[in-house]
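COURSE: Structural Biology Practicum
ASSIGNMENT: Worksheet 4, Part C
STUDENT ID: 0417
INSTRUCTIONS: Below are two proteins. For each, the amino acid sequence is given first, followed by its structure token string. Answer the questions at the end about the second protein only.

PROTEIN I
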Amino acid sequence: MTEQTAPDEAATAQPLTRATVEPVVARARFDASGLLPAIIQDAVSKDVLMMGWMDEEALRRTLTEGRVTFWSRSRQEYWRKGDTSGHAQFVRAAALDCDDDALLVTVEQVGAACHTGAHSCFDVDPLSPATASSTDEGADGADSAADTTAEADRG
């Protein structure tokens, strides 16, 4: 079986500039506080490194300057990952999700991504959730979720 792949649009697309980034910013759906969650992923390992918040200006800077910029909710200021720690994030790709309300930024990570010194912010407190195998009844979730909703509606 032959697998078809789409042309590599990233290889042919022109980098965004301050002049061309505005349609992307306009399309992004920021929350009531004017913020967009940004998931940061390692370009090589595909590990999810961290999540931060971006406002319109942080999104513009990230997409046009090649370094990830966040909005700090606690300090009420912009911060560019690595400016003080040296643990920089260099943008390799970015994509809005299907609803335009979350951003995935693929980066080349230099040093630790987490302020604790961990490789990933999600390495700090791993959880052990219950898991279902594909052979378990209702493992696909669709039927069991629909059944639960239907029962709740009747009850």
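PROTEIN II
(use this one for the questions)
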Amino acid sequence: MTMPSRSIKCTPCASDNVSSETDQHFLSRTTRLASAALVSSVLASTLMLSSSALAAAAMDRDKNMTLVVPPWPGVTVKSEIVAQILTPMGYTVERQEVSSTVGYKTMTTGDSDAFLAGWLPAQQDSYDAAISNGAITDLGNNVTGARMGFAVPGYVYDAGIHSAADLAASGDKFDKTFYSIESGSTVSDFINNAVDNNVYDLGDWDVMESSTPGMLSEVRAAARNQTWIVFYGWTPHWMVPEFDVHILDDPDAVYGGKNGASDVKTIVSTDFATANPNMTRFLDQLIFSADEQSAFILDYGLNERDLEDVAHDWIQAHPQKLAEFLDGVTTRDGGDAIAAVDGSL
């Protein structure tokens, strides 16, 4: 007997579904494991790079930094701030108390490392000579809004003396005398050259040079008696609020162009900058506003507070500035620089 043919219809069985789900689960798990391994690898690489960067930052050749510090209150306080930051980071800081002119020479010979008061154009000749032979590296301004030049107290300015060109006509009131800072400084050379060349008809005037405190004592005495005086002035400095100082227009550019507008630069010896990237990064990021510098100059230069206290209190009161100064900087052995400084305050 012939059996009737029957078509057989195949349908998926339960075991097929289980196998398919298992395969998908296996693939999903494998993908997750691979992703996790990739993330771990990236994190490990990042950590290794970060560690390498920290180690590289801390690989300074020198432990010591020698700063050029002329007898000016602004650079004196700034240099102390630098010392109080670098010391807990494992460095030592020495000061070389010389004029700016000598300071450029000592940076050229390798007898000093850095200078925080590179006023330009006041020190242009010294700066140009040192930078032309590659001896120094310019890290840029560490204070903004600086200006220098012929200066008078507010009562003289209010009487109509607004420009250096106004001085000669009132020469007798000024006793035909101009007061300046240290003999041999570039800014004193500027005014002596102006007198020698009869700029502004000042050929018969005398230039009285002394230390900055000595010059300002003359200004204070004149202000007390309301007598007329003209002197070398600059900002930032406590003299500005104390004596209502006005810096005069200088059309013949005795103190440089732009009415004495100045740069205040951080200058380092090129050898030091190359060999000490960590300290150099810190110096490069050391920037103060004119108001900040005037405030600590007032504290130290006028109120005669202890230098160490002025610097300590300024650092403690400006944690955000400290963080900016030390961004990407480590201690000498590669540790946390901000934690080290905070722990010392």
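ANSWER KEY EXCERPT:
Q1: The beta strands are 64-68, 92-96, 114-120, 136-143, 147-152, 177-180, 206-209, 230-235, 246-247, 263-269.
Q2: Residues 1-27, 33-57 have pLDDT under 50 and may be disordered.
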